[in-house]
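Hey, I was hoping to borrow your eyes for a little while. No rush at all, and the record is pasted right below.
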Amino acid sequence: MKSFEVNFDGLVGPTHNYGGLSFGNVASQSNSQQASNPREAALQGLEKMKALMDMGFVQGVLAPQERPDVAALRSLGFAGTDAQVIERAAKEAMPLLVASCSASSMWVANAATVSPSADTADGRVHFTAANLNCKYHRSIEHPTTSRVLGAMFADSQHFAHHAALPAVAQFGDEGAANHTRFCREYGEAGVEFFVFGRSAFDSRYPAPQKYPARQTLEASQAVARLHGLSEEGVVFAQQNPAVIDQGVFHNDVIAVGNGELLFHHQDAFLNTEQMLAELHGKLAARGANFQSISVPRDQVAVEDAVRSYLFNSQLLSRADGSMLLIVPEECRSNPRVWQYLQGLTTAGGPIREVKVFDLKQSMQNGGGPACLRLRVALNETELAAVNPGVILTPALYDTLTAWVNKHYRDALRESDLADPQLLLECRTALDELTQILKLGAVYPFQIN
């Protein structure tokens, strides 16, 4: 049976703004308070989705969240009508209003961790929504994320959904941004690679000193247990604390993997040789020929990797067995990174082509091509069981483009977040979107 890796890209929400909310994310902090363009951001994301669809890849869409999150503000003591809640929050606690307006759910690599049916004990595709409890503005996402994923992957014969882990520091979980799966073919048993920044209970693991390590070993282990993964099918590796302190807040900022290949920076991990040997051995036992490409620090410094998002790229398998690397425009703008990429594609290795996309609106807030997509490996039967409304087609692309142009503002500043009309605009847009994507009632305003 044929299998696919489907990329479900997050639609950028109508409240896309530069709030500078993500401590440890260099781009997010450095562009704080600038005016954003939600319409351009959403259209840039849609253009990338369409390009992959046109290249023959199966492409899906993941809906944004309702923002501002008035229910979250009410839980923090702001009372009255929706408009009064927003007005009071703007007056008394603007940072909380900004957090409640964040469109960070666009980076759906953080939405969940996904294990394909070939790896799980019960032969179903498993989803665990990420609690994202390191940052308040992201910690409020997982209830809606769970409902949206449940509406997309509703058939319990093929799909299993788990609630987010306990929302405490010991189980900080950032989803697929710290998870990669290696395999010979997408439909065959593979090895799932969990990368953590610290251990909550074992002091033998070093921790970063400047920025927080968002993913814990204990969270990764819990997800592996929930998904019914075997010991032979998992590898746990620690991110280098020194690179976390340089702005590598997730593993997908310093490494990307696909199929039998791991593409990573020389300084990405601790105990790199031991980790690579474990991956090689476990994949060999499953018939796969694991390879790694280590980018030397003397060719691309960690700082260049962070600023260009070289590794926050999409690594895609083509029909001829070669791989395509999808990178942001910032890679071409960085002379050292672009020189490295030119040599990479002519070296005769598995990565044969690089395609560049303009994702400036997302990049300025700290998210590149890899942040914008959740990868789900599906066989033909499972793909047929996915809600067809979320699979991109030329007609759906045209519909979503028109929807964005109809509902999104072309400029948004912090002061605009205090406008109650923005909430009404967002709800009107999302109500229409759920009909377009055939999701049913997934947002609080539709349910309550």
In short: The two ends are 42 Å apart (CA to CA). The longest strand covers residues 3-10. The mean pLDDT is 93. The chain has one domain: 3-67+102-447.
